[in-house]
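Pasting two entries for a bug report.
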Amino acid sequence: MATKAPPAYDMSLVDHGFEATELKGLTYPLGDHAPGYGEIYQLAPDLGWTRMPVPGNLSHINLWLLDDDAPQGNGYAIADTGLFLPDVVDYWKSMFAGPLSQRQLTRIFVTHFHPDHVGCAGWLANKFKVPVWMNRTEWLLTRLLVNEQLEHPPEDILRRRKLYGYDDERIDKMRKGGWGNFARAVSRLPSGHHRLDDGATVRVGHRDWQILTGGGHTPEHACMVDHRNGVIIAGDQILPRITSNVSIMDSEPDADPLAEWLASIAKFRVALPEDMLVLPAHGFPFKGIHARLDRLAAGHHEQLDRLEAALRTKEMRAVDTFGLLFGRPIDDSIFSLATGEAMAHLRFLERAGRASLEVRDGVGWYSSK
């Protein structure tokens, strides 16, 4: 006899006891409540929320625990895993010895290849002998980068940094440093994985999650959408208060990631209803997905318009656009990210015919007529 599915949970979270807040067109059903590192808060009877620390301004990543099938009926899956760093591992171990001690991990879902999402996936998979579910491209990038550790950066990387406007001092500093820091916070994945293809439906416990992929932040970032209960595990694809980094990647130096990002925003806006609860990787669960997607798109278009106007008055290298695009000092810790994002905006203008590139002595200069 088929098991009858339980009724849909009320994901409006009206009975949680916290006061909802509203800000910039978004509603936060839990206000500013969040679990502590290594604690579990039940958003629904079969959906838990925990956090792990992330160094720097982000401070945290949200991770999700999904009831799943197991022989004893006590299974759970994890969606995203945190950095593979000692404090994060310690928090996981405390959970396994505490609230998860009588439960069985069944599988691990990873939204994309960035270290705060995939970092502990290999360690967890190997520890519990369970599979990793990822988009193929994101899995391959993880497998590639975790093995890419060199004493010095490749010369083509250094030539590309010169093209972007790095001065000789910064390039020389890069040349003397190591290359491939990815593996410092990412455990080695198992040799195989389960693919998360765009449009696929994955049954986890009593929920059906549709996979919806987006590009720009990473090549094929996989979100998990529960249409029946109105929930999306959004990773970095839709964040409530910050904008995900959209950068030119060294693995695809001729790509147009900002065009992919804007196309993904349009795709998600059509696919998702306005009242869906968004579970983001950073920040707090929120509603108002259309307003947030519209604001994300508008923000980039505003930056593009400002950049195009500035290029009409003087030519610029990528590193010359930081003040215009970011409005704050860019120190060494985020210089590379800022360069990648600046190049993404310049590339978009160039491909759209709104700017032109001239390379002189290996340095790229952009202008607009």
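Entry 2 (this is the one that rendered wrong in the viewer):
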Amino acid sequence: PWLYNSIVLKKLYFPSQIYDFEKSLFASGIDELGLMKDAANAAAQWIISNLKQESFIILVGPGNNGGDGIYIGKYLIDHGYKVYFLRVLQEKTKSNLTMAAEKDIENHLIALVDLDDFNKQETVIVDAMLGIGGRETISNEIKSVNKIANTFKHKIAIDAPTGLNVSSGKASEETFLATNTLTFFGYKIGQILDPGKNFTGKMELLKLNKNIDEEMTEAANLFSFEDVKDLLPKRKLDSHKGMFGKIAILAGDAGYEGAGILASAGALSVGAGLVRLLSQESAVTPALSYLPELMVSGSDNPQDFKDDIKSAEVIVCGPGFKDSYWSEQLLYMAIESAKENNQTLIMDAGALRLLCNKPFQDTDLPSKLILTPHPGEAAALLNLSTEEIQENRLSASTNLATKFKASIVLKGHQTVISSNANYICNEGSPALSIPGSGDILAGIIAGLIGNKLDSLNAIKLGVAVHGRSGTEYSKNFGDRGLDAKTLIGLIKKNIN
């Protein structure tokens, strides 16, 4: 489960954008039927070049995806392959293009009666039933077809496996389980999001010599650690700690002192220059025992921290905060200092919960603001349920960015980043589901900003190195037992 599709994807689109792009092509004079034939020809050529089997079953739906399938079959027949067609949803009205395709190939159509009559190791089954217009709710007829189709070894989906919603990634339990998906123009976001990516198999992009990115702004960008690992420049020989940022970590209310220590460790793990933890007095001794290089100030009076907050370049506020006067005052001081001194403020954990309280709802927030919620915190900030957040994480992240005029890191599997654009990180594993993981991430982002990365690049690199370290642990040991100290060690290795 921690392994991701080996293809590194970049730009992701909603299906509505694909439809709009097609409309623009038709408006420019491109013939609809001609484009369908081009798509089918490209798919057939890929099949011929990559598969050795000589027998094919095409599952044909009533819409344009069915027309694609019919022409794919025609091209395969023209090259000497044996092709059978199974029509589904025959009670539905056929699209004009599909009717044209059927007429064009009617002398070649071989209908089949029973999928179980075929050798499931040697026959390739091609899903051209619904395409990107499909949803996770499918008819009993489609469920029955998919159930048998999924027993075949080689399964090709045309544009999208039937049963998958390529807008959201939601999928039916009886979704066509493709070994390969041939998709046109651009990758669709639901092919990447869980659980959708579990049904697409290996994806192949057929652009048909058309560049959607010249006309459409992508819905999101997918990235991995490999894409961002070189953002942090090598240090010069005459470097000194003053060159790599002054970080203030406001964290660790009574009973939660460890959160601030872990956030500080995260900042130091990526090479932050000067890190000061501002916490309760009870945090000082354990913090210095764990991180003797850390500067620590402890007090039950937040006003004692005013000068230290003001002198920082980056402020992390919130790990280990709770609904208390001490936490509230530190959050208020952090907000005001960041506004007055043009500091970057990273709000995490308890600070996000406090942000929902009435005293802060009408507070003007600083311009350099980063929020790092997990789904529960995002739900509180948007007055939604956690389930609603998880159903559409991209929408939730963009809504948070708009509401708070901030860069958002919506943590969890396939972490979503929303800033001037949307990004989805394909790193990470269930091993990261441990106490303190998010605190460490907040510190990492602060430390990378201290190393003079701009906020967005610091977020992308921070999320990716944190996720890659979890993936590496899972690969070597499994998904259980990761602890903060081990995670910090992996982060140090990977950031270097």
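Dev reply: Rendering is fixed now. As a check, the viewer should reflect this: The radius of gyration is 27 Å.
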